[in-house]
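ESCALATION

Customer reports they have been waiting on this structure for their group meeting. Please prioritize. Original submission:
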Amino acid sequence: MANRSQAKDLSACLISDKVRSLLTVKDDIDQMRKKTIVIIDDDAVDVVDIERKIAANVGMVNLKNIKIEIFNSADAGLEWLFSNEADLLILDVCLPEVDATGVMKALNKNHVILPICLISGVNEMLYIAEQVGIGQESVIVAQFKKPIPTEEFGKLLKDLAIV
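Update from on-call: job pushed to the front of the queue and completed.
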């Protein structure tokens, strides 16, 4: 009788281990599917606006599949990008310590390739940053004057298969 009880306990442990293993694999797969958007902008109001527009275009159900990394300085954002992968960089053209052209040059120098969406409160700055970005490894996929238009931003997210 004791052998049957021990066999049941062992069987339950094995099943429990298999379930734990399957859940771990599922979590790993879910993590792999997450899309990462990096925002480098020193204006907290603009960052909140961008987050709202991501949520509006993705929907609350799918928001769990997106990871948003926010940096208020180019240096912090670059440090993160040098050691992590992202699916989209939303980059403010005018930053205090380094502007968008400096960020793009640093990405190129370190062979970080990713789609870049330039944002600025000034149209002329978008043009200048785009001209400097020509020939870089990363691709400028969009440029928006702040505030970012919701529908056009949503189309960009769909085109990049983020949503």
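Sent to customer with the following note: Strands lie at 35-40, 66-71, 88-92, 115-120, 139-145.
Escalation resolved.
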